[in-house]
Specification:
The chain is 0% helix and 53% strand. It has two domains: 13-158, Jelly Rolls (Sandwich), CATH 2.60.120.200; 171-337, Exo-inulinase, domain 1 (Jelly Rolls, Sandwich). It is built from no helices and 27 strands. The strands form five sheets. Strands 13, 15, 16, 18, 23, 24, 25 and 27 form an eight-stranded antiparallel sheet that branches. A seven-stranded antiparallel sheet has the order 14-17-26-19-20-21-22, with no helix packed on it. The chain has strands spanning 13-14, 17-24, 31-39, 49-56, 62-64, 67-68, 81-83, 93-100, 103-108, 111-116, 124-132, 151-158, 171-173, 184-187, 190-195, 197-202, 208-213, 221-229, 235-244, 247-254, 259-266, 269-277, 286-293, 296-301, 304-311, 319-325, 329-337. By secondary structure, the chain is mainly β. This is Family 16 glycosylhydrolase. It holds the Pfam family 3keto-disac_hyd. It comes from Paenibacillus plantarum. Residues 1-163 form the GH16 domain. Belongs to the glycosyl hydrolase 16 family.
Length: 340
């Protein structure tokens, strides 16, 4: 066997940004195609490797999305295999990496697949490659004719403009105009009242109260609100991706047991996705925020992320809402948007 070294010229290296290719892989055992990044190694330890998509050709629908620390003492290894749901060898699709100071996210066709909380504080190179590996990718299938190719439509890199105006909110309501006509009442008794300032109150103390607002086609966004519960043994929260009364996500405070809870309601059935213990005092304002990005769900209480690492693909789009259960509760400063 003859091994040939392919010279690599470093033409492009940077820190932070969004990087993507639209590509089609080579099929066959023993083959693999890859789009990946590594540290430039301005210092020898700066070696984090990110496999944005490393595709063994023997499995048409499975790609590897790995993080290898190598000599970077601040990083950790995290290997992952992702089923993309299509044949990577016959169709062009987009594979991407988003990298900022908070970490790294990997995408397939704009769908979030893997996250990594470590963000290297050094430049990285980006590579495209095709290999006859005849090793960990399986024995080489010699029946596949040449030429063999990694077909790349484009590579694109984007940098965030620090002077850009943050995206506008999708919705913002502090009820100071005394009106809630934009809200659709499903259940409960809702009205704008005064509590130092104008707020939105649901006053029924038994059963469910729901109001909704926005567009059922909203996809990736946050919903947030200040919430104050006045009734013992009740709960109140915010709703995201509301499709109808039987399909949505909800982040709520429950003062029965003092808990912050993330639920989904799908096909009429409530499922508790995660809960944590918190202190829920009556007649006290708290700020809830539910962030929904692709299949990833995060919950915040008073600006601190309390619920994370939740993935669920049951509901992809929907409007926002407010919901109470067995609780007289008030809401203020309700918002939704993309500036997470």
């Amino acid at each position: 066997m003859i091994y040939q070294h392919i010279p690599t010229d470093i033409k492009y290296a940077t820190q932070y940004g969004y990087f993507e290719v639209r590509a089609k892989s080579q099929k066959g055992s023993g083959m693999h195609t890859a789009f990946w990044a590594t540290g430039v190694e301005d210092e020898a330890w700066q070696e984090l490797e990110v496999d944005i998509s490393e595709h063994p050709g023997r499995n048409a629908q499975q790609t590897l999305m790995n993080f290898y620390k190598w000599d970077d003492p601040n990083a950790t290894d995290s290997a992952g295999s992702v089923n993309v749901g299509f044949d990577m060898t016959t169709e062009y699709h987009i594979y991407a990496m988003e990298w900022d100071a908070s970490g790294i996210k990997l995408y397939v066709d704009n769908q979030l697949k893997r996250t990594y909380s470590y963000s290297p504080n050094y430049r990285m190179n980006f590579y495209l490659g095709i290999y006859e590996n005849a090793g960990w990718t399986g024995p080489l299938d010699t029946t596949i004719a040449y030429p063999k190719e990694f077909a790349v439509d484009y590579f694109r890199a984007y940098k965030r403009d620090p002077n850009a105006t943050p995206p506008a909110d999708l919705l913002r309501d502090n009820f100071e105009d005394g009106s809630a006509t934009d809200w659709t009442t499903g259940l409960g008794s809702w009205s704008v009242v005064t509590d130092s300032s104008k707020v939105f109150r649901q006053s029924a103390t038994t059963g469910e109260g729901i109001v909704t607002n926005g567009n059922t086609l909203w996809h990736n966004y946050f919903v947030e609100s200040k919430v104050k519960i006045a009734t013992a043994n009740g709960g109140a929260g915010v709703i995201g991706r509301y499709q109808d009364a039987n399909n949505y996500y909800m982040l709520r405070l429950n003062n029965t047991g003092d808990k912050l809870q993330l639920y989904k309601k799908s096909s009429e059935i409530f499922t508790l996705l995660q809960e944590i213990a918190v202190t829920v005092n009556l007649n006290t304002w708290y700020t809830l925020k539910l962030v929904m990005i692709e299949n990833s769900l995060d919950g915040y209480l008073d600006g601190v992320k309390k619920i994370s690492g939740i993935t669920d693909s049951s509901i992809s789009t929907g409007s926002i809402g407010l919901r109470t259960f067995n609780a007289d509760a008030k809401y203020d400063d309700v918002g939704a948007g993309h500036n997470y």
